[in-house]
Every structure is written in C-alpha cells, then in structure tokens.
Amino acid sequence: MLTRSPDATEHVFDKATHVAPGDSQWSGHTSDDYWAFIGPFGGATAATMLHAIIGHAQRDGDPLSLTVNYCAPIARGPFDLDVRLIRANRSTQHWSVELTQGGEVSAFATAVFAIRRPSWSHQPRQRPDATSFEQTRQYPKSALKMSWVHQYDFRFVEGQPVLDGAPRTEPASPFSKLWIGDTVPRQIDMLSLMSMSDAFFGRVFHVRGEMVPFGTVSLTTYFHVDAEDLRTEDIRQVLAIADASSFHKSYANQTGELWSPGGRLLATTQQIAYFKV
Asked: CA-CA distances (angstroms) from residue 212 to 37, 202, 203, 244, 274?
C-alpha cells in the first residue's frame, strides 16, 4: 500500500494519510478533505506520521502510544517525514518522527510500538450505556466550514454542542458521549483509530457555545488493542467519551475514550489545547 500513489478508488482517509517511502526520509501531502481552521486536522496529521512508522521496514509490533506535538501551522502542500528508530528490545520499539516543510519542523512525534503476547486480561471499566449508532440521530454539519468535520458521521448521545454564535452566560458542561464513524463507512484500523482519538470538537466550544480560535498543542493516544484485535472485531464506529477539567490562561486539557460497539476499550487520549477568548 505504501509503494503506490493513491487512486480514485481509495477511501478519502487513505488518500489523506498516504505516505511515500524512503530510507529514513518519507514524504506526504496535506489533504483539503481534512482541513481545519488554518491547517490540516490534527488527527489526520497524527495518523499520517503513524503511517510512516507502520510502513517502515524496521517496524515490529503495533502502536502502544503516540505523542504528537504541533509546533507550527502546516501549510497546504508537500511535507517531509524524518523517521528514526531510537531504540528497540525484544518487546518494544521507540520511534521518533519529524514533519518538516522548507527545512522547518512543524510537528514531531514519539511512538512506542510493542509486540503484544497472550496474557491474563481484565477490563474493570465497562463501556458507558448509550443508544446504538443506528438509533442515534446524525449531528447536522451543514453550517460548519471545516472540511474534516464532514468526513465523519457524528451522533451525539449526550452533550451535543450548541454553536449558535452567542456565548453562554454560564459555562455549559464539557462532557460529550457520541458515536463517531467515517461518513463513507470504513473498517477501523490503527490509523483511523488514531485519527478518531482527536475527532472531538474542542471542549471550549461546548462550554462557551461558540467557535473560538483553537488548536491542539500536544496530543497523546494510548492504544489498548492491536491490529489483529481490530480486524477480528470488524468495527465501523466507536463510542467516544470526551471531557475536560481546566480552562485557564489560554490553555485547556481534553480527555477521551474510544470504545467498540461490543464493549472493548480501544484507546484513551489526553491533550492540551490552546484557545483564544
């Protein structure tokens, strides 16, 4: 998949996260289909950087964690990915990826890959109750101008944002429970799971009831399944939980959980984001 150019039959997500291989230097291109305010959607960027590691000849195992730091807006057009295996042992690999344009770093990531071996398994936390994906109404997105939003089918069970442009007199709850799937259905794999872990609307939008300048500064996602688990369960949507704890002096945290319809915790995420109000 990594050695050919994307074609018209590919899913829009696969086109957006396509990377061309090199030795340590890979290349990619931004996608207008996954555009946010002043640059590409951070989840798609993270998935693209992860794709470069997954396609690397030295890669062994599956993603255990990925941290992406967004240093500067990524401009429309091509970019380079400098991929480096930092250290490896019998069970884990530690990687770094730098995304550069014109010789300047726009984002950098660190990742841990692991070979998951059969072991004792226990999931004390249970999937939150929710109406099914099919029984939950689609969120209307016609008024939202960011193209990345239109690539996802959002169905809010609880905490649907009211973005009418008028700031709330009292802050609302930052909590949301929603289903997320691709608008054009696609089986969820490690790349799309990575992207969906950032596919929450900014919590500050929910709290204030308006769109404000916003951007992720640092994002970490932890994967609780491997690629084989995802293939076996054949998932098309995830139940997502998003929340926040603090909005202070232009920065806010965001947390998230991604669950399979069958009740498996797939991934958890933490991020710090900038806002201007």
From this structure: 10, 9, 11, 16, 10
